[in-house]
Amino acid sequence: MAIELSIAKGTCYSLFAYEVAQAIDLDVAERRLVANAERQTIKQKRRAPAYFEYRPAPLRVVRPGTVRTHAGYRTIPTVEIVLYDFGAVSVSYATPIEGPLNGLPALADELWGNERLLADSRRQVDELLKSLGDAAVRPQIGDVVEDYALFHIEAFSASCDAATLWAEHAQTVARILRASPQPLSQQEVTDATALRLSFGPNDAAIIDTDATVLFDPEGEDVRTVLEFANTQLLEMRYLDQQLDDTLEGAYDTLLGRPSRLWTARRGAPDLLRLGRLQVDAAILFEQVTNALKLVGEQYLARIYALTSRRFHLSEWDAAISRKLQTIDGIYGKMVDRAATRRMEILEWIIIVLIAVSLVLSVLTLTPH
User: Which of 38, 106, 336, 356 has CA 20 to 30 A from 160's CA?
Assistant: First the structure.
């Protein structure tokens, strides 16, 4: 029988990522929110190169919040919001966790898709957006939201090796990761705990699709990377949705054929809109994929790689790249069609001018 583990110190972070603007001027935002704002860096407590960093550094804001109770655990009365220059924000609620490890599945179950936290996070984002003013370029809160839970255990009451979590307590850990109040099958347990990483014998990160169990006396650097990856997934989903809508509209425009030559100019606004969306999407894609520089076989880079694998970021990347190429092809065809129509109009103008010239010549030569 496995010895029951009891958490001496830990925190559960509930994360909600939103798309709020085309871009955010973080310098202007910092001046507007100077009272409770600071630039976020990855506080590296392990070996990492100096250039393992954000470009530019996000802005972290602490705002007052409401104490809420979930499965007997109470949140702290503050909310953290991280602003990224590519127009996304991440809202974080912290809930101190102490007591038996087997009490966390109930907490995970209540936090999963929690409507109260979701509504409050959207309210926090809306209030923040009003405070940002013109620091947010083309502000608009997107419909897509990406939530994630991080169960950060800093210490157990008794000495515990990290391997114990996926050896003797795999069922409990899997139920936390999958937010399941009921026991899971062995296949589900194996899948939930498959992606894990340790830097030393007394720390571990077990990463799943909707949650991570982190056993680490420090761990703030891991939390920062996980929060960014969740925000990156949000941006990928948002961008994919925007590209789908753009493709649908572009196909309709391309397949539509004006019945008269003089209606050709009606396609100009569609062409301009498609070109702007194409540029905006390409810039956002570049910003999101290059905001965090990860180099070498370092621990945090491996954490990010495992998280990317769980989130299927490479598949999102490939799908978005393919859609951008498709839009580029459609844009080229629309430009060619517009050019062809302009040439047809010019040819008809020339024909009309020649005809008018001939008629005038005949009228001039005809005796009165």
Answer: 106
Assign 96 to helix, strand or coil.
strand
Q: CA 120, CA 93: separation in Å to the nearest integer?
A: 10
Torsion of CA 204, 206, 211, 213, to 10 degrees: -30
The structure's pTM equals: 0.81
Tokens for 344? 């047809």
pLDDT digits (tens, 9 = 90+) for 18-64: 999 989 999 999 888 877 677 766 665 555 544 456 667 889 999 99
Spatial distance between the Cα atoms of 16 and 34, rounded to a whole number of angstroms: 23
Strands (E), the chain: 6-19, 23-24, 37-39, 59-64, 69-70, 73-74, 78-83, 88-96, 99-100, 136-137, 145-156, 196-197, 204-207, 211-215
In this structure, what DSSP letter does residue 34 have?
G
Residue 154, number of CB atoms within 10 A of its CB: 16
Distance, in Å, from the CA atom of 351 to the CA atom of 358, rounded to the nearest integer, reads 11
Q: Looking at this protein, which amino acid is placed at residue 361? A: S
d(CA 225, CA 216): 14
